[in-house]
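Field notebook, page 156. I keep forgetting to write these up properly, so this time I am using the form the group agreed on. The chain and the ligand, adenosine-3',5'-cyclic-monophosphate, are recorded exactly as supplied. Prediction of the bound pose follows.
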Amino acid sequence: MERTLVLMKPDAVQRGLVGNILARFEQKGLQLVGLKMRTFPRAHLETHYEVHKERPFFANLVDFMSSGPVVAICLEGKDAIAVVRRLVGKTNAREAEPGTIRGDLGMSFSNNLVHASDGADTAKSELALWFGDAAELSDWEPANLGWTYNVAEELS
Ligand code: CMP
């Protein structure tokens, strides 16, 4: 099982899309193991997006991400990092495939509703940043796990 970070950005909150987006992940079979909502300080977002700090869009990105509440969630599942990235769709929402979150719900490159970790190393460091306290993540076993997966084939 893998864990990954998803941020529902200020545009998702302001547009009332948090429930829709969360439902897509839950309906897919991904397990919610952490959730928090807050307007995060600029310094936190600068750290999160440090890899982009030399890019021309960096200041605008940090302004946007600190402009209002963000909902941060941790999702768990088999191959969760790649599964979530596929559900989210291309970064430019105008080019994202129909059926994906950005493809169905967005029109912008910058205001693209969600962020999702792009690999195992990133997921680890981003989860450490956003859910640094282990007590913020819940270890629990969904009652329907054996219906979501074929346990003998996929989980043993
Ligand atoms: P995200 O997946 O959160 O990662 C970096 C974010 O920067 C990206 O989504 C976009 O919201 C934003 N962004 C704005 N302009 C660009 C760009 N030209 N290239 C990549 N990301 C961009």
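OBSERVATIONS:
- The pocket of adenosine-3',5'-cyclic-monophosphate is lined by residues 52, 57, 61, 91, 109-110, 112, 115 (CB under 6 Å).
- The mean pLDDT is 97.
FOLLOW-UP: compare against the apo run.
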